[in-house]
Backbone:
């Protein structure tokens, strides 16, 4: 029972001083036992059994093992389709040093306001001064501003007239002196930045769930959340949560919410203990209201009050129906009894323990219906409101006893009525504490929650009805959307102790990385929307048996995201068969061996993991990032069903637009686990969570983009040109007419089927009308086109474009000459080798002659070819040795064409023999022999009628065949 | 350049290789995860070379940094005050950013930051394997001579490393030992803390002797000037040592009690344990704090040696010293001690009276009540009634049959005396506006059984005549048993038409008006 106080507490020092340690690092919550005490103290007290001290069981303040709760899916899911958000929102923090830009904008776009007074005064005078008398002062100012608009150097481009005006009037023309404006702007921006980082009005959170009844594993309940762009409406949404023994849990949110329009932004929603009719308190900045919700009737407003100062807190009594507490920034706390009005019970003008410069106040109930919590940033007090004089004592204060850090402040306080009659949760930006109001000042439990932003929302889940298991605390922060799950146990028969390390839950802003890639602008919209600040956290748990927990999170745009947590059974831990340790054989060799065996074991693990991490960390694709740690966990986690609550036509649109994408997404996600499983069997296939989740996200994103789609306003004038090229209107209907509906459907089906199989969709397989045969155009004979252009084209078709141009422009003369010379030399050598006669010397002179001819063009072509003719036929017999057959076979050609061709061949050969860097387009060829063998044959159509070439080729081939 | 294959054969002596502690496979490059090629190689080689000599050097390093850079614990409060006033202008309670880029940081520092972030992420999401991988690389930060806070780094490594070890199913007590030993020596500041944690780990794993040895080592540790925090920690270590001595004493006592004629040596040994333990425990209990286990053991020993004055003195000091926190258990222990030794009821009542002021909802309040009633004084009846009513204020006692019947008894006994109505009036004046709503409503009555209802009707009529409606509701319910049943079946249905609801309401209203008429007639 709750009234049992733990008979023995953990030890701790008690100091009354201020905190004396600084916040140094953010890993304080790990790896420390804290304190230790004997676990079975009661048996020892009676002291009959003579237990050896070795057998004494010890309990630690922090126990390393807790329950493991893992998200079922690797990403959060949206609960409702997106509502229209604010017109603009940015998650970037404003920089106070940007005040100059803000001033510039003000002068530019609000010049009427900025210079109103003086322009009114000066207008006449300036008119009289102005010789032309046409331009008004304002237009001048505008002109001046125009010059400022572009970021030129202001001094260089100042017009002399403006300069003169500036000298004359710069100190009087502004309505607000720039210094003052700058100062105020800076202050304002600083404040706004702070508000963006931390807006304390949202403390407590504006998301609540009231469970109604449970029938056959179906939990009925009502979710309360604010909607609309500015969170100006209050929604009562009926949910049905279906828990199955084995299958996936299922949320049915198909009913329409019951909505109230409010005057202000909803900051906090709180509920009392669930009863037949529950009261719901709603706080906005200056108004607070109470609604009544029951399972059978529609929700209705009971009472609304208005506060003079900003209300900072509202809480509902868990003891007496219709009692609430309201605290405001004035420091006054009221007890609000519905129907009887407000009753002031405490007022504090300053902070309680030291000056924290904060007007934030908080109230809550305690185990006694007439003792209240009164809190500010410095501490928490228990106030007895039965007496008129202020009778209160400290429950918690920032100080040395709970080992607070310098600068630590109370962020929120929550009475844990459902968990323990006397327990309170108090969070600061560094830690979370559980305090027992029967023993104030010393926290029963302390965690370092290790969150980046202060936790402003909390939901507590009691341990299951038998008392076993842990109490779970879910903390939520605002700006970074963090969710942290903490666990503790005890508080009744045993002292409280924390269980297991803190666990971070999934955040909506991380979801995008798990989804298939989006188009950039869509990605941007979604990113902006998902990264908005959180505004509330709540959890839904099954009444009997703590099987699944549904964690819901609200963002400032009114979107609700949820994730399912499922307990992981610790029994499937890896059992490593290691030799049992005996105290006798602690000899060195065995221990070394033992050590090495551990190492190998660990290294095996590690090597497996390295593979995994390469897969998951290296790739940008959404991989199975949720790791199992060292444990072997259930591999087959079922994904859960989704009942989509959508307008039918919108769903249709969404599906038709996204089906294709979704298929891809699914297939990729389906292939991922397969890879992962080959890499490591130990990793749970959480990424398998794909299909339904991805589909849900697809629809959500599509709707979000549609909702955000506005007419684009360009800075320039536009003409309507949509109808001109649009075929969606008439053309489409005309196109559609012959196709009957079912035919189109069947076609679509066929396409899908084909895509699924990764095959082509052949026209014949469809029911489309047969296509008209298109006649094949006749072949083109290149030789028929003799003009320059055609020739060039046909050459370039074969890849000789560059060469052709070089040829026609005469750019390759030199290289050609060299090539020729080389050729001659070779021929000469060959000849000299062949017959050592006098005539040989004659031929050399001829060849020399021809070389000289070559310098002056192609004049002596005939003589040269005649000379080389006789040699060529003979030499072609050994052409294989020389490995340049092309040059010989083409040498038999006659006329200029032949010669050009030959030279081209040889130069080509040179080029290809060298580095291939000559830029021959389509000849990145392997060997010179290939070049020379391929090219002539390709070129035959153009050369035309050169039977000798083919003959020589034939010969050469024969020779080769001889090999 | 020395490669790994060279280092391995020479590592016969115990290597200072943290990597193996985290299950690091030597064939893989630990720095491959961290992408900073410029700093990587030198650090890695130095790291692998750190044997016992290196360890000694490391300690020297730490010592020098210790001497040069005093930490916050040495600062005088004045300095702190100055710092505070110079410090933040913002009064918003934001935690300072964790991974802050410093203006003058090398690539190595950047890598460290990234690595730490990765470790944190992995650990928060319980990906222990991944965290251990990063951790094996992160240990290199200890090598950094330019680090501004070397203490901090080793503390972080200690905490994160221990947590990772806890979640490694393959970790053995040797791994823990070596890790704790290294961490002890990598920073002087945290020597005591790590020692204590090491001892706790031994205790949890059932290695009693090792734990005791650890505490002895920690106790004998001396280094320079002790800060306030360190002296407290030493006291705590001594106290835990005393506590372990007490456990041994308990064991000896039990074995001696079984033996027929115990020899003098064994008794002497037992006494020596008692002396060691009691000195240490008494010492720590002088400072304000919560010392429940220590106090119990001390009192147990004093009791055994029949030093009742000593025991009572300690108990009284623990309960009534103003420097101590208002621990309910202190009063409970005192009361239990008094009760056990049959102290006069007046003393017992005195203790419980204070406990009542502190915790009106305590389970001992029922005993207090019966003690008051046993005293037989008329004035105490009123007090007993007050105690019971206080209990009923709390939700956990709200449906307790014992308390309600106790209230009924007291009321019956009070009625015989004179001026009882004043006493009741005095007690109920603060409760009259909310008690009816708390106890005597329809919703509360629907959950109760018949006996409790009867008693409550009686009490309501006496204490809250204004809440007489309650008795009629309950009576009507008990009369119309069938009505209740139909209601329950209706609740099972999700939606009831509004017409039926209206009819129900109408019927209820009629019944209540009938009830009222009936009461008027009675009056």
Residues:
């Amino acid at each position: 029972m709750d009234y049992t106080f733990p008979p023995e507490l953990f030890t701790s020092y008690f100091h009354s001083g201020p905190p004396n340690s600084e916040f140094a690092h953010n890993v304080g919550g790990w790896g420390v036992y804290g304190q230790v005490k004997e676990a079975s103290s009661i048996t020892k007290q009676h002291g009959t059994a003579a237990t050896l001290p070795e057998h004494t069981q010890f309990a630690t303040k922090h126990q390393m093992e807790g329950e493991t709760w893992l998200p079922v899916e690797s990403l959060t899911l949206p609960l409702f389709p997106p509502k229209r958000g604010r017109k603009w929102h940015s998650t970037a923090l404003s920089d106070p040093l940007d005040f100059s830009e803000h001033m510039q904008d003000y002068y530019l776009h609000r010049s009427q306001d900025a210079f109103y007074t003086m322009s009114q005064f000066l207008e006449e005078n300036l008119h009289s001064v102005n010789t032309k008398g046409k331009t008004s002062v304002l237009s001048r100012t505008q002109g001046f501003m125009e010059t400022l608009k572009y970021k030129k150097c202001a001094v260089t481009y100042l017009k002399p007239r403006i300069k003169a005006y500036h000298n004359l009037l710069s100190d009087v023309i502004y309505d607000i002196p720039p210094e003052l404006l700058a100062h105020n702007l800076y202050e304002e921006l600083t404040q706004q930045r702070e508000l963006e980082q931390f807006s304390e009005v949202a403390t407590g959170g504006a998301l609540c769930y009231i469970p109604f009844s449970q029938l056959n594993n179906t939990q009925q309940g009502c979710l309360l959340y604010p909607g609309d762009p500015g969170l100006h409406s209050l929604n009562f949404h009926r949910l049905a949560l279906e828990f199955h023994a084995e299958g996936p849990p299922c949320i049915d949110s198909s009913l329409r919410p019951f909505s109230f329009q409010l005057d202000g932004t909803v900051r906090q929603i709180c509920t009392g203990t669930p009863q037949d009719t529950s009261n719901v308190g709603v706080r906005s900045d200056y108004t607070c209201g109470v609604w009544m919700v029951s399972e059978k009737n529609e929700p209705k407003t009971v009472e609304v009050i208005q506060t003079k100062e900003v209300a900072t807190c509202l809480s509902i009594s868990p003891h007496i129906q219709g009692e609430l507490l309201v605290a405001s920034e004035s420091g006054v706390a009221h007890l609000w009894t519905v129907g009887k009005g407000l009753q002031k019970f405490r007022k504090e003008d300053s902070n309680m323990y030291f000056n924290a410069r904060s007007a934030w106040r908080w109230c809550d109930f305690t185990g006694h219906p007439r003792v209240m919590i009164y809190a500010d940033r410095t501490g928490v007090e228990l106030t007895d409101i039965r007496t008129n004089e202020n009778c209160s004592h400290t429950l918690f204060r920032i100080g040395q006893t709970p080992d607070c850090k310098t600068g630590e402040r109370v962020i929120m306080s929550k009475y844990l009525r459902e968990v323990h009659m006397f327990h309170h949760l108090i969070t600061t930006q560094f830690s979370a504490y559980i305090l027992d109001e029967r023993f104030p000042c010393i926290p029963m439990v302390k965690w370092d929650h290790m969150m980046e932003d202060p936790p402003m929302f909390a939901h507590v889940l009691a341990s299951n009805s038998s008392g076993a298991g842990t109490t779970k605390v879910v903390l939520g922060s605002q700006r970074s959307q963090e969710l942290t799950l903490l666990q503790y146990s005890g508080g009744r028969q045993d002292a409280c102790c924390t269980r297991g390390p803190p666990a971070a839950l999934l955040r909506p802003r991380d979801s995008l990385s798990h989804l298939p890639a989006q188009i950039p602008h869509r990605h941007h919209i979604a990113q902006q929307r998902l990264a908005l600040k959180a505004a509330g956290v709540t959890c839904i748990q099954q009444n009997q048996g703590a099987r699944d927990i549904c964690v819901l999170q609200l963002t400032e745009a009114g979107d609700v995201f949820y994730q399912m947590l499922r307990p992981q059974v610790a029994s499937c831990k890896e059992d490593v068969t290691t030799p049992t340790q005996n105290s006798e054989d602690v000899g060195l060799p065995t221990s070394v061996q033992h050590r090495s065996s551990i190492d190998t074991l660990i290294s095996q693990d590690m090597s497996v993991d390295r593979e995994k991490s390469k897969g998951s960390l290296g790739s940008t694709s959404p991989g199975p990032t949720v790791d199992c740690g060292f444990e072997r966990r259930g591999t087959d986690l079922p994904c859960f069903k989704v009942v989509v609550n959508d307008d039918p036509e919108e769903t249709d649109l969404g599906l038709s637009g996204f089906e294709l994408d979704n298929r891809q997404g699914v297939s990729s996600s389906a292939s991922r686990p397969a890879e992962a499983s080959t890499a490591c069997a130990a990793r749970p296939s959480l990424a398998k969570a794909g299909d339904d989740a991805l589909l849900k996200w697809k629809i959500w994103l599509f709707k979000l983009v549609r909702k955000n789609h506005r007419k684009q306003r360009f800075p320039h004038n536009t003409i309507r040109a949509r109808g001109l090229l649009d075929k969606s209107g008439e053309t489409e209907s005309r196109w559609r007419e012959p196709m009957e509906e079912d035919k189109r459907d069947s076609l679509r089906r066929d396409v899908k089927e084909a895509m699924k199989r990764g095959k082509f969709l052949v026209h014949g397989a469809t029911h489309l009308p047969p296509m008209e045969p298109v006649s094949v155009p006749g072949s083109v004979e290149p030789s028929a086109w003799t003009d320059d252009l055609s020739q060039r084209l046909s050459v370039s078709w074969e890849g000789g474009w560059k060469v052709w141009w070089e040829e026609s422009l005469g750019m390759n003369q030199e290289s050609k000459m060299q090539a020729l010379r080389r050729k001659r030399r070779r021929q000469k050598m060959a000849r000299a080798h062949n017959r050592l006669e006098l005539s040989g010397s004659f031929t050399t002179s001829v060849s020399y002659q021809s070389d000289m001819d070559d310098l002056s063009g192609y004049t002596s072509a005939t003589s040269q070819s005649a000379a080389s003719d006789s040699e060529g036929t003979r030499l072609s017999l050994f052409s294989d040795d020389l490995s340049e057959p092309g040059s010989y076979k083409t040498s038999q050609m006659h006329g200029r064409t032949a010669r050009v061709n030959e030279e081209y061949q040889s130069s080509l050969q040179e080029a290809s023999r060298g580095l291939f860097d000559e830029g021959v387009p389509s000849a990145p060829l392997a060997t010179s022999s290939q070049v020379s063998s391929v090219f002539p044959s390709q070129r035959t159509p153009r050369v035309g009628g050169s039977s000798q070439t083919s003959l020589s080729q034939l010969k050469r081939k024969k020779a080769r065949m001889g090999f | 350049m020395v490669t790994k294959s060279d280092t391995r054969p020479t590592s016969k002596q115990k290597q200072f290789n943290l990597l193996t502690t985290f299950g690091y496979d030597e064939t893989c490059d630990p720095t491959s995860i961290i992408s900073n090629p410029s700093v990587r190689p030198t650090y890695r080689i130095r790291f692998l070379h750190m044997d016992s000599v290196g360890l000694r050097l490391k300690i020297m390093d730490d010592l020098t940094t210790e001497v040069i850079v005093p930490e916050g614990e040495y600062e005088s409060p004045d300095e702190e005050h100055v710092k505070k006033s110079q410090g933040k202008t913002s009064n918003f309670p934001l935690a300072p950013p964790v991974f802050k880029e410093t203006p003058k940081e090398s690539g190595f520092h950047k890598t460290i930051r990234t690595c730490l972030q990765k470790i944190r992420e992995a650990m928060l999401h319980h990906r222990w394997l991944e965290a251990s991988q990063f951790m094996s690389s992160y240990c290199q930060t200890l090598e950094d001579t330019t680090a501004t806070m070397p203490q901090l780094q080793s503390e972080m490594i200690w905490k994160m490393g221990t947590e990772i070890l806890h979640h490694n199913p393959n970790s053995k007590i040797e791994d823990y030992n070596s890790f704790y030993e290294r961490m002890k020596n990598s920073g002087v500041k945290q020597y005591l803390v790590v020692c204590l944690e090491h001892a706790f780990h031994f205790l949890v794993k059932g290695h009693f002797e090792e734990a005791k040895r650890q505490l002895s080592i920690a106790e004998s540790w001396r280094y320079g000037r002790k800060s306030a925090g360190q002296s407290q920690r030493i006291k705590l270590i001594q106290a835990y040592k005393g506590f372990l001595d007490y456990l041994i004493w308990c064991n000896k006592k039990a074995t001696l009690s079984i033996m027929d004629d115990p020899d003098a040596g064994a008794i002497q040994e037992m006494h020596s344990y008692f002396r060691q333990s009691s000195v240490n425990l008494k010492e720590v209990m002088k400072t304000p704090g919560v010392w429940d286990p220590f106090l119990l053991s001390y009192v147990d020993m004093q009791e055994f040696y029949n030093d009742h004055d000593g025991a009572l003195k300690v108990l009284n000091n623990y309960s009534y010293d103003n420097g101590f926190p208002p621990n309910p258990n202190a009063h409970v222990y005192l009361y239990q001690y008094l009760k056990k030794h049959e102290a006069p009821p007046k003393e017992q009542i005195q203790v419980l009276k204070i406990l009542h002021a502190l915790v009106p909802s305590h389970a001992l309040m029922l005993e207090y009540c019966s003690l008051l009633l046993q005293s037989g004084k008329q004035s105490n009846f009123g007090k007993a009634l007050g105690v019971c009513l206080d209990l009923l204020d709390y939700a956990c006692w709200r449906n307790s049959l014992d308390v309600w019947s106790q209230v009924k008894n007291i009321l019956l006994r009070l009625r015989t005396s004179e001026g009882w109505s004043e006493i009741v009036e005095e007690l109920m004046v603060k409760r009259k506006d909310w008690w009816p709503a708390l106890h005597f409503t329809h919703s509360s009555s629907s959950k109760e059984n018949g006996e409790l209802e009867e008693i409550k009707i009686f009490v309501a009529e006496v204490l809250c005549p204004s809440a007489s409606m309650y008795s009629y509701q309950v009576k009507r319910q008990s009369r119309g048993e069938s009505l209740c049943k139909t209601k329950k079946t209706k609740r099972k249905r999700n939606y009831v038409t509004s017409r039926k609801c209206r009819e129900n309401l109408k019927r209820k209203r009629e019944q209540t008006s009938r009830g009222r008429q009936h009461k008027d007639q009675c009056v």
Notes: Residues 128 and 164 of chain B are 6 Å apart (CA to CA). Chain B has 27 helices and one strand.
